[in-house]
Fold this sequence. Notes:
Layout: E1 25-32, E2 49-64, E3 67-72, E4 75-79, E5 85-87, E6 93-101, E7 121-123, H1 128-143, H2 149-170, H3 183-195, H4 202-209, H5 213-224, H6 228-246, H7 251-257, H8 263-274, H9 278-285
Antiparallel strand pairs: 1-6, 2-3, 2-4, 2-5, 2-6, 4-7
Amino acid sequence: MQEPQVQCFVKRDYRPAFTTETMPRLLYVSRRLFSDQARPRLLHAHPDWVEVLLIEEGSARFLIGDTTYDVQAGDLLIFNSGVVHDELSDLPFASCCIAVGGLRLPGLRENALVAEDAPVVYPVGEELTDLRALYDIMYRYLSADRPDCEAFCHRLMLALLDRVLTISGSLSLRLPSNPEPASLGRQVQEYIDQHFSEALTLQDLGKALHTSPYYLSHVFKEMSGYSPMQYLLRRRIGEAQNLLISTDLPISRIAEMVGYETQNYFNLQFSKHVGMPPRKFRQSLVASPEEPPKTE
């Protein structure tokens, strides 16, 4: 029979991962419920922050950088800043996610949680319940706008990041489903990622990369599963989703920023690929303190 009061002592010396000079900042917490109605996030990247996403239920397929991963409940996904990612499957899954800015770790570039050549998907095993609890508390406090919730959730974020650092340093990657892509495919992807907001055709790509448009299209589709123009479209819509969620910019300005000459055509393409117009998407994803979203 366990004693009514038990003390657990700290057995080892330790150094905190973050100090006042390297203190990261929690930007947002998001939650996706297990529902066929959830809208996919298309190709996008975050230039100034890291996302740490936990799959709580179900399974999905993600394109992260230039590699496809099949993930399932209990997998942790780490998106360093600037890394393009995409949801490839239509299967329902539940997840929770935090975004962290101002992240500076020894030996890594700013806003990177893992090295560039490190795994990006980690099974968390028996830590799933505890990690889920940390995400859940942060989400509930912020969505309800409780007093001093920012400072409280900041401390929970530090606890979560400590566990993520431990997990990412000790657990192995679930093997990617695609082989290493050709160098040309990477060049096509990098060029589109850098120029997606500009007028861009298959012929422009061929000219920029000094390669036959037909050949580069074939190589890129073998690597990513998309034609270059499909990737361009998803990249634009994904970045638009990012701007709709994280800024108050007018939709007309967002359309212009992601490469569309008219808002009407942008609205048409956005609705076709996301399932709702941009304005409704923004309203459905940004929580209001006066009426916090339901978590069940």
